[in-house]
Design goal:
Mean pLDDT: 92
Number of strands: 13
InterPro entries: Solute-binding_3/MltF_N
Largest sheet: 6 strands, mixed
CATH topology of the largest domain: D-Maltodextrin-Binding Protein, domain 2
Number of helices: 9
CATH superfamily of the largest domain: Periplasmic binding protein-like II
Pfam families: SBP_bac_3
Order of helices and strands: HEEEHEHEHEEEHEHEHEEEHH
Structural class: alpha/beta
Strand content: 15-25%
Helix content: 25-40%
Radius of gyration: 18 Å
Protein name: Solute-binding protein family 3/N-terminal domain-containing protein
CATH architecture of the largest domain: 3-Layer(aba) Sandwich
Number of domains: 2
Family: Belongs to the bacterial solute-binding protein 3 family.
Keywords: Signal
Shape: globular
CATH class of the largest domain: Alpha Beta
Length: about 250
């Protein structure tokens, strides 16, 4: 997967030469909703976008990339779209959000050593906490500059930092993704803290505001109408259930 991903990244500048109805889309591993198998995008969120694009008469060109790079390329108009992006005031300046495909209730968790106890927010104070670069968790945590947060580009690096003792905890938005990353390195010496923060998110695709304001607004709006229709007519729920994944609430 790494080789093919690197190949796609090197190839991506050439995608600017693709047809006007081709959207350049970034992918990152967020199982069970989306991930890459041997360079091939898969998961219900990928399927939702593919169906909506087909109905809108659009083509998709996928690239596997770290989330921070995807945000930077959206800001500069080098790519068109990234799935499942949470809004915040800084991002809102350079992103345009397509209609939500539904809401999801999640818990922000903290992976820790089984011998450690983290039951209250205040228990985070002495810890070195691994976070994914450019990711949002919950407002108090995101704004807390007193915490010792150690950023990394992806889950694979975070779990290796944890195994090596370079961090004491990992802030977790996607439990399945972290569990998969730990499983990939055959590491089991972790648990989840009693501290957890419930959040509700709107599952949205974000597009480049720079491109929206230039020449691609009609394409993005066309795709947005199809996504909205799929949410309302139950297609989103059906796709998630067909793949055995809990669907967003319409």
């Amino acid at each position: 997967m790494r080789f093919l991903s690197a190949f796609l990244i090197l190839l991506f500048p050439a995608l600017a030469l693709a047809g006007a109805d081709t959207l350049r889309v970034d992918l990152r591993d967020r199982p069970p909703e989306m991930w890459s198998i041997d360079g091939r995008p898969t998961g219900p969120l990928v399927k939702v976008l593919e169906v909506a694009a087909e109905r809108a008469g659009l083509h998709l060109e996928w690239r596997y990339a770290p989330f921070a790079r995807s945000l930077a390329d959206l800001r500069e108009g080098r790519i068109d779209l990234v799935p499942r992006v949470l809004p915040d005031p800084e991002r809102d300046r350079y992103l345009h959000y397509l209609p939500s495909i539904g809401t999801q209730d999640k818990d922000i968790l903290f992976a820790i050593r089984p011998t450690r106890q983290v039951e209250r927010y205040e228990d985070l104070a002495p810890l070195r906490i691994g976070v994914k670069r450019s990711s949002l968790y919950f407002p108090r945590f995101d704004a807390d500059t007193a915490l010792n947060k150690q950023p990394a580009v992806d889950d694979d690096i975070l779990v290796r930092m944890f195994r090596a003792g370079r961090i004491d905890a990992i802030a977790v938005l996607d439990k399945a993704a972290i569990d998969t990353a730990f499983d990939n390195i055959r590491f089991r010496d972790y648990a989840y803290a009693g501290l957890r923060e419930p959040i509700r998110i709107e599952n949205r695709f974000a597009v480049s505001q720079k491109l929206y304001d230039s020449s691609r607004a009609a394409l993005y709006d066309r795709l947005g109408r199809e996504l909205d229709a799929m949410r309302r007519n139950g297609d989103v729920v059906s796709i998630y259930r067909e793949q055995g994944v809990e669907p967003p609430t319409p």
